[in-house]
Each structure stands twice: as C-alpha cells, then as structure tokens.
Design brief:
Elements (H helix, E strand, L loop, with lengths): L60 H8 L24 H17 L8 H10 L3 H13 L8 H17 L3 H14 L6 H4 L1 H13 L3 H13 L3 H14 L9 H14 L3 H13 L3 H10 L5 H11 L3 H21 L2 H21 L11
Helix pairs in contact: 2-3, 4-5, 5-6, 6-8, 6-9, 9-10, 9-11, 10-11, 11-12, 12-13, 13-14, 14-15, 15-16
C-alpha cells in the first residue's frame, strides 16, 4: 500500500492537495487539518437540520440548567403569607412547601418524558393536589421574587412549569396567566406555540369560545406583539364588547392601554385619549401613564406621571427621572446650583425606583 509523503518541516507556504482536497473548502472548520510535523486534528461535524434536537427539547432546558448547577431551593419561610384564591384556609406555607418539593422530585424522575402530560396527571392524583393549589403556589413565587443570588432564576423557571402543568390539565386561570406572562416577557411572544404546545392548544380553545374578554385581550396582545395591528385591534374591541354594560374584567387595563397605543400609531389621538381616560377614571396606573405621555409637553404631565408612579408603573418612574434630569440641566445653565442639585437627586431617586420595580420579570405590580 502506497503512503503519501509528509510535507517538509516548517510552516506550509501553500495548500497541499492531500490535506485540502479539491472538493472541499480550505476554510471549513470541519476538515482534517495537518500542520507540519504534527498529527492530524479532526473537528466535529455540525449537527444537520435533520439531526437537530426537536423543539420540544427546548421545553425543559430550564430544568436541565437547574440540574447542572447548584439549585437553590426555596425555604419554608419563602411560602409564608401564601394566599389561595379559591379556599384561603386550604393552603398554608407547610403544605405549599411540601407540594413544591414533591413536584420537583416528580420532575427529576420524568426528565426524559418531560413534555408528557401523563406523569403530571399522575402527580396531581397521587399527591391529592388541586390545580388551583399549583396555580396559587406559582403566583406566590412570581409575586415574592428572591434576590438573584438566592435563586430568582430558578423561581421563575419553576413557577412557570407549575403554572404550565395546571394549565395543561385544564385550569383556565393558569392558562391565561401564563400566556400573559409569556406575551409580556418575550419579544414577539416567541415560542408559545412551539415550546408550550399543549398550553397553546388550551388557549386557542378558550379564545374560540368567544365568551371570555380576558382571552380575547391576550389574543389581541399577541397579534400586537407580532406586528398585526389590524387583527389585534379587532380582538381588543371584541374583548371590550364582551365585557358588557359593566365594562369591568381582569385584563381591562391591558386591553384599553393596548388599544390606545395602536390607535396612537394610526394617528387617531382622540380615540386613544378616550381609552386612556376610561382607565384613568377607574384609577388605573396605566391610564395615568399613557395620558401623561400624551400630554408630555404640558405641565399636567408631571402630575399624571406621579399618579401612575404611585400605582407602581415603573415606566412612569423612569420618565419622571428623565424630566428631573432635564430640569437639572436647565438649572445648571441658569446658574441655580441649589435647584440643580435638588433636581439631580430627584432624578437619581426616580431612576433607582424604576430599576427596583422593573427588576422582576414581569414586574411585581400585579394590578397592571
């Protein structure tokens, strides 16, 4: 058997045909590469599209990340003050903590069939856990975030999976709540149909019933996130119509504020103002915030933004910080040093508050 000769010692001046075949590209990182006087080094081939992991595997990447690093469990004290919407006396901190650990153990035992609904149904039945309890525990974890070093990321991922389980098994509030959080936290609400396929199927069924203004609102927000403002406005208007003469429903602030923003983009300022004013009459922070931004050039804007900030709207806090910074620069130009320092301190405080209120995703302000 004939063997091809090795190149001479030293760096290669030009490509060698037996190192870089004519049918291959020299620049490809997945070819065997030989340097003078060294062994052949092989690089792994990239995974082809047909061999790529299925989208469902993305569904439990958070669990895998938690397993690969030191998971920081939430202590019993982290469930104090938990409240159940359906039966306040049925769920206390001790029971919530037990369910929290039992679900974690069940997850680790079913990593390979993570997306299957069978083990989730078995867990609920064998442990005597109600779907509302899973939802309430997830809500408590969302509303009482820990510090980043104490496991905030783990809390977010874990609470999402708890709420997802309740939604997949048919608990309507969990479906709508988790869909809302996905829409509000993901650019373009990506991954809803791919990573949460069963939850998304439940959500579409609720929307198709055409009787829940909250579901119609979320569908409108989803279309708005995807840039389809015409269809978004159609669903948002339908949500408002379904609310009836009373006009009140849980996601009304999100519905009217989203309608107003779409109408503003369409140049219909008066119609947008009407939607914001209705929210302000209900003493809703988002209504005051959007009115303040609409009247930004007028003196009343500061008062409107302060009303919104007092309701926990972090965008209003940030805008007030910017206004104070503008006043600081003007005071410096006019030579009013004392006033300038006061405006600067106020600006820094507003920005600090805005960062604190927006540090959780979604923000801890559950009243919108």
């Amino acid at each position: 058997m004939l063997r091809r000769p090795f190149p001479p010692r030293g760096p290669l001046k030009k490509p060698a045909s037996f190192i870089f075949p004519a049918s291959s590209s020299k620049t490809s990182p997945y070819l065997p590469v030989r340097y003078a006087g060294t062994r052949v080094k092989y690089f792994k081939k990239p995974i082809s599209a047909s061999r790529a992991p299925p989208p469902s595997s993305q569904h439990f990447m958070e669990l895998e990340r938690d397993r690969c690093r030191n998971w920081v469990p939430r202590p019993l004290e982290g469930f104090k003050g938990i409240v159940s919407d359906e039966n306040p006396k049925a769920l206390d901190a001790t029971r919530a903590h037990r369910i929290y650990y039992a679900y974690r153990e069940a997850e680790l035992q079913n990593v390979k069939n993570r997306t299957s609904i069978d083990w989730k149904r078995d867990f609920v039945k064998s442990h005597g856990v109600t779907l509302s309890e899973l939802h309430d525990i997830a809500l408590h974890m969302f509303r009482t975030p820990r510090a980043p070093s104490d496991g905030r990321t783990e809390d977010w991922n874990y609470a999402s999976r708890l709420m997802e389980t309740a939604g997949e098994l048919g608990y309507r509030p969990a479906v709508l709540d988790l869909v809302r959080r996905i829409i509000q936290t993901r650019p373009g609400a990506t991954g809803l149909d791919r990573e949460f396929s069963q939850l998304h199927r439940r959500f579409r069924d609720i929307v198709a019933e055409d009787c829940d203004p909250n579901a119609q609102t979320l569908q409108g927000m989803l279309y708005a996130k995807q840039g389809d403002h015409a269809r978004a406005l159609q669903f948002l208007q339908r949500a408002k119509a379904l609310a009836g003469a009373d006009g009140s429903f849980h996601l009304k602030p999100l519905c009217l504020s989203q309608m107003g923003m779409i109408l503003e983009k369409q140049g219909k300022q008066e119609l947008a103002e009407s939607e914001y004013a209705e929210l302000a009459r209900d003493n809703t922070g988002l209504g005051f915030y959007h009115l303040g931004m609409l009247y930004k050039a007028e003196p009343v804007a500061r008062w409107l933004l302060q009303k919104a900030a007092s309701s926990g709207v972090h965008q209003a806090m940030r805008e007030l910080g910017n206004i104070e910074l503008t006043d600081y620069e003007k005071a410096v130009e006019d030579g009013h040093q004392e006033a300038a320092q006061r405006h600067l301190a106020d600006s820094q405080e507003w920005h600090r508050l805005a960062s604190a209120w927006s540090s959780t995703v979604p923000p801890t302000n559950e009243t919108y």
